[in-house]
């Protein structure tokens, strides 16, 4: 982290660390599709996390908005993810929404939505859809939404989701939908997953939802603007690594309690897990550095370097988490996968959360970048 900013977010990082026992306990209590970690969310709301990514012009902390702040943002997400991947995903969605607002909103919108966040309203980004996806119609300065979103994380708790909708020419328009002022139809039957159950990522039907023009965010097509769109994967990668880190810590404690620390094979597995976590931390730190560089100088070269790094980070963290889960299960055996141990739930949650779109494409892009940027002397 930039030394000038190294202490600016220390209170948020300390709060995230302090929350971990609460997060871990409530994660077990709310492992169901119709529940939600309400106590953990309340703690988050009481500790400035909902307003941290708002510009200081409107009372926020500029977290993730300036070079040197990205290391702290990723560390916070990693810490929250270590306690509860569900809340890590929810907070990452809120951060994502705040960053999009800062990037594309008008000054009036920034002020209005900052006030919403300071009043405790949770934001999110709902982009995923099936064949009945959301489209938008212009009706004389008001806009009407039709269609549905799937994986609407935080349903019932997110009050200001950024909903993407296709317009007449097929472009995607971001809309901030005030869910406390309109009536969307919730389909909770759609959500019955292996893991991440308490994210309440239901299906939401927005048929005939009317929104004002000043609830449109940016211009059509802005949502997919690079490098911010693909680069955002570093945030969920940080959350995922937090889950893997908790698996590692719990595995060490489990073996210590069983007095299995002198077993040579267990030492080897724990050693490998320790190396994997250290490697993951270096990958996450590298993402912060490349993002800081892009923020300091937003050149096309720095954008491409950052995008390539995020593709590598996402791929590496996926592999690290997968290997951590495999080694953990070898260490603890069938006995450790019983409750009240946390392993079974965290492994289900992490396995589900790792299922992000287009992993093969990201790896292919890393290879393409390597070919395109190979030293000409090595091409012969």
From TrEMBL:
Record has Flavoprotein as a keyword: yes
Superkingdom of source: Bacteria
InterPro entries: Acyl-CoA_Oxase/DH_mid-dom_sf, AcylCo_DH-like_C, AcylCo_DH/oxidase_C, AcylCoA_DH/ox_N_sf, AcylCoA_DH/oxidase_NM_dom_sf
Keyword Flavoprotein in record: yes
GO molecular function: acyl-CoA dehydrogenase activity; flavin adenine dinucleotide binding
Keywords attached to this entry: FAD, Flavoprotein
The protein's required cofactors: FAD
PANTHER family referenced in this protein's UniProt entry, alphabetically: ACYL-COA DEHYDROGENASE, ISOVALERYL-COA DEHYDROGENASE, MITOCHONDRIAL-RELATED
Similarity annotation: Belongs to the acyl-CoA dehydrogenase family.
Name the UniProt record assigns to this protein: Acyl-CoA dehydrogenase/oxidase C-terminal domain-containing protein
Source organism phylogeny: Bacteria, Pseudomonadati, Bacteroidota, Sphingobacteriia, Sphingobacteriales
């Amino acid at each position: 982290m930039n030394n000038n900013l190294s202490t600016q977010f220390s209170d948020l990082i300390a709060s995230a660390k302090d929350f971990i026992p609460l997060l871990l306990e409530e994660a077990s209590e709310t492992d169901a599709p119709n529940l939600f970690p309400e106590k953990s969310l309340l703690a988050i709301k009481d500790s400035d996390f909902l307003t941290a990514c708002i510009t200081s012009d409107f009372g926020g902390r500029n977290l993730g908005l300036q070079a040197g702040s990205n290391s702290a943002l990723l560390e916070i997400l990693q810490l929250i993810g270590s306690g509860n991947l569900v809340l890590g995903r929810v907070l990452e969605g809120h951060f994502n929404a705040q960053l999009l607002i800062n990037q594309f909103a008008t000054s009036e919108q920034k002020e209005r939505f900052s006030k919403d966040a300071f009043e405790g309203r949770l934001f999110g980004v709902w982009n995923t859809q099936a064949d009945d996806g959301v489209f938008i119609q212009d009706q004389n300065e008001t806009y009407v939404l039709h269609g549905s979103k799937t994986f609407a994380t935080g349903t019932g708790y997110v009050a200001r989701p950024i909903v993407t909708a296709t317009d007449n020419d097929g472009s995607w328009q971001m809309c901030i939908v005030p869910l406390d002022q309109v009536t969307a139809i919730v389909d909770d039957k759609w959500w019955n997953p292996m893991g991440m159950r308490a994210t309440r990522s239901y299906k939401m039907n927005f048929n005939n939802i009317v929104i004002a023009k000043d609830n449109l965010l940016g211009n059509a097509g802005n949502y997919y603007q690079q490098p911010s769109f693909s680069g955002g994967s570093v945030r969920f990668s940080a959350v995922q690594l937090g889950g893997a880190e908790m698996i590692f810590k719990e595995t060490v404690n489990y073996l210590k309690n069983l007095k299995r620390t002198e077993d040579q094979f267990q030492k080897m597995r724990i050693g490998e897990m320790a190396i994997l976590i250290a490697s993951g931390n270096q990958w996450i730190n590298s993402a912060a550095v490349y993002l800081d560089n892009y923020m300091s100088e937003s050149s096309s070269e720095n954008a491409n370097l950052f995008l390539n790094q995020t593709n590598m980070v996402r791929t590496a963290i996926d592999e690290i988490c997968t290997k951590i889960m495999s080694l953990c299960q070898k260490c603890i055996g069938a006995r450790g996968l019983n409750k009240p141990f946390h392993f079974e739930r965290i492994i289900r949650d992490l396995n589900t959360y790792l299922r992000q779109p287009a992993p093969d494409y990201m790896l292919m892009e890393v290879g393409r970048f390597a070919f395109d940027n190979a030293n000409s002397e090595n091409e012969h």
